[in-house]
Amino acid sequence: xxxxxxxxxxxxxxxxxxxxxxxxxxxxxxxxxxxxxxxxxxxxxxxxxxxxxxxxxxxxxxxxxxxxxxxxxxxxxxxxxxxxxxxxxxxxxxxxxxxxxxxxxxxxxxxxxxxxxxxxxxxxxxxxxxxxxxxxxxxxxxxxxxxxxxxxxxxxxxxxxxxxxxxxxxxxxxxxxxxxxxxxxxxxxxxxxxxxxxxxxxxxxxx
Length: 207
Hints:
The protein is built from 10 helices and 5 strands, in the order βαβαααβαααβααβα. It is of the alpha/beta class. It has a 5-stranded parallel beta sheet. Helix 1 packs across helix 10 and helix 5 packs antiparallel against helix 6.
């Protein structure tokens, strides 16, 4: 049995990742491919703790938050119940809303990116994405989308921070472009145009 593909969606908050994950999943179904859709932070006990920190219900140091993401990601990969390594090995295509590039971008605003990359080294050694799709969205547009769609803003969703995070994404792509497959899509357009662009850019990786 051939292994399944692993597609990771990345972007600042409000970039439209979740929408594009759903559209791609539907497109893949129409093409006759079964997909497993997931996200980070997960809904595991570790992921639930992260969600509480992100929404301000629990206080934690940035280094603690970064380490929790590392732990949640390893559990996401390896747990017996629904770990994505097993699914990929079973021939299932996995689509995730966020993976380790999110940690590289968000956490390196407050600490060394090299430290964050090193901390996530086990995850990258275990499973690299077949392709990482980065939806590049202007922070002003992202903030407008967040304001329309959510009742509260999470810790990482302030405009000034999103501007820094976007810069850090490109810094990470520059550092790791030789070992990672990354496609960048203009996220400032109509969602159907974005979806069509994503499909054309990832098709070569699905062969």
